[in-house]
Each structure stands twice: as structure tokens, then as C-alpha cells.
Amino acid sequence: MTLKTFSRSFGHGPRRALAIHCTLAHSGAWRGVAEALSDDLTLLAYDLPSHGKSGDWDGQGNVHDVATDMARALLTEPMDIIGHSFGATVGMRLAIESPELVRSLTMFEPVYFAAALIDDPDRVRAADRNSAAFNVAYESGDTMEAARIFNTGWGDGSGWEKTPEKLRQYMADRIHYVPASQPFLRDDSAGLLQPGMFERAIMPVLLMDGATSGDMAFAINESLAKRLPNVTCRTIAGAGHMAPLTHPVAVADEIRALLAET
């Protein structure tokens, strides 16, 4: 499926980078990080399917395939890729499937449950506290409650009650993206866990998490760190899963250090 892809550009640095946002956000979420790196990067950020101003996914096929194809079409030359959460899994997939197009890869808490489910399934299930309640709300058609539960587990910690109504509705309208993502995120629909696949990502990789994030994020990052051949791991002090929005300067500082070595 080919969708309209909306993108915006930040900064004026000599290096070109592609940024991929998290589920239920949009490309503008990169503004803080991009401004901190404006002298280093010209950052191109695009809206995922059914997000922001990009076209709506029609529910056919695999939405992760669609999101990845959108990103790959924007890689007109080797670029630095920066991804957050779901967006980080798109970047990871590009680094494995099309390594010649990825100069470096930065991932903040990629939600690639599939790797951790292989390595430590009991730990993942113990950390996965919200899935049952989310599934009940979503399957009953209560998209607003499903969005609230998702935001509680993966938001910035500010509280659903403080979230503006317009933003709540934006998330509720797109909450179908969460279950639609599971074939890739949990079941490895692209086959990235097959032998020899991760070894293809030979570029420098920066893998970050937030110090206050939950055990799920730590389990996933540990699983990926042992598979990636050229990885550096960093933790953002005082931050949680939404650090690219809540702690953009700290995240940008780590990215700048990676760029200096690449």
C-alpha cells in the first residue's frame, strides 16, 4: 500500500538524518531534539501512517511494512536514523534490511517485544501489566479508555487527567494502531530474529533508555544490545519512555556524541 507521506525538516546542519516518532504522536514531536541538534543535523521527520498529516492506513496488510516502506522511500542517500519507541523499530528494521542506507542508528526504547519474549518471556509477562485491561477496553469499542490505559503505561507520566481533550481524542482515534502493530512487534512478522539478520546492522548504534522507565523497556534493550554488533548503550537520568519529548537536550547530547564518532 502506498500512502501520502507528510514530512517536515528541522535544522541546517551538514549531515542529513531521518527521525521516526512513536505511536500516537506525530513528526512535530522531534522539535526539541532537532533544535538542540540544529547545527549538527538537517533532520527530516515524517508522520507514520494514520498519524499527523500522512495518509490513513486502510487496515490491509501489515502496518509496520507500510511504515517502513514510507521511511525507506525518504532515504535518498545514506542517512543517520533516529527513532523513538515504534519509530525506533522502523529504524532498526531499515538498519537490518537496508544497511547501505543507514549511516548510524539511534533508538530510544524500541518496543520490539519479540526479542525479549525469546530471551526472558517470564520477565516480559511480569512487566506487561496493562495488556489485559487494554484488550478489554479496545475489544469493547471503548477507544478512549484504551488510549488512557496505553498512555498510562507508555506516556510521559503527567497523567491522563492533565492531557488536553483534543490530544486525548487524537490518541483515541488512532488507538487501533497499537493492536495492528503486534504482528511485527511481538511476532516478528519480518523475520528479523532469524539467524544472521541482526549481524547485518554493522553501523554504529546508540541504544537509549530512561532511568525511570519500566522493566519492559530494560528487558527489550538488553535483548537488542546483545544482538547488535556495534552498539553503545546510554541511560537518560530522570527520564522515562518519553524522554525525546521531556528531556530533548539530554537525548540530543548523546546523539551528538554518536555523530562525532561516526
- Give average pLDDT, whole number: 95
**Category from helices, strands and their pairing:** alpha/beta
The fourth-level CATH homologous superfamily is Alpha/Beta hydrolase fold, catalytic domain
Number of helix segments? 12
Estimated radius of gyration: 17 Å
What is the approximate shape? globular
InterPro entries: AB_hydrolase_1 (IPR000073), AB_hydrolase_fold (IPR029058), AB_hydrolase_sf (IPR050266)
Domain AB hydrolase-1: 20-253
Organism: Sulfitobacter marinus
GO biological process, one term: acylglycerol catabolic process
What does this structure look like?
With 262 residues, the protein is an alpha/beta fold. The chain has a single domain (7-120, 186-261), classed as 3-Layer(aba) Sandwich (Rossmann fold). It is built from 12 helices and 7 strands. A 7-stranded mixed sheet has the order 1-3-2-4-5-6-7, with helices on both faces. The protein is globular, with a radius of gyration of 17 Å. The mean pLDDT is 95.
What would you say about this model in short?
The protein has 262 residues and is of the alpha/beta class. The protein contains twelve helices and seven strands.
Topology:
Layout: E1 7-10, E2 15-20, H1 31-36, E3 41-46, H2 63-74, E4 79-84, H3 86-97, E5 102-108, H4 113-119, H5 121-127, H6 131-139, H7 143-154, H8 165-173, H9 177-185, E6 205-210, H10 215-225, E7 231-236, H11 243-246, H12 248-261
Parallel strand pairs: 2-3, 2-4, 4-5, 5-6, 6-7
Antiparallel strand pairs: 1-3
Pfam families: Abhydrolase_6 (PF12697)
InterPro entries: AB_hydrolase_1 (IPR000073), AB_hydrolase_fold (IPR029058), AB_hydrolase_sf (IPR050266)
GO molecular function: monoacylglycerol lipase activity
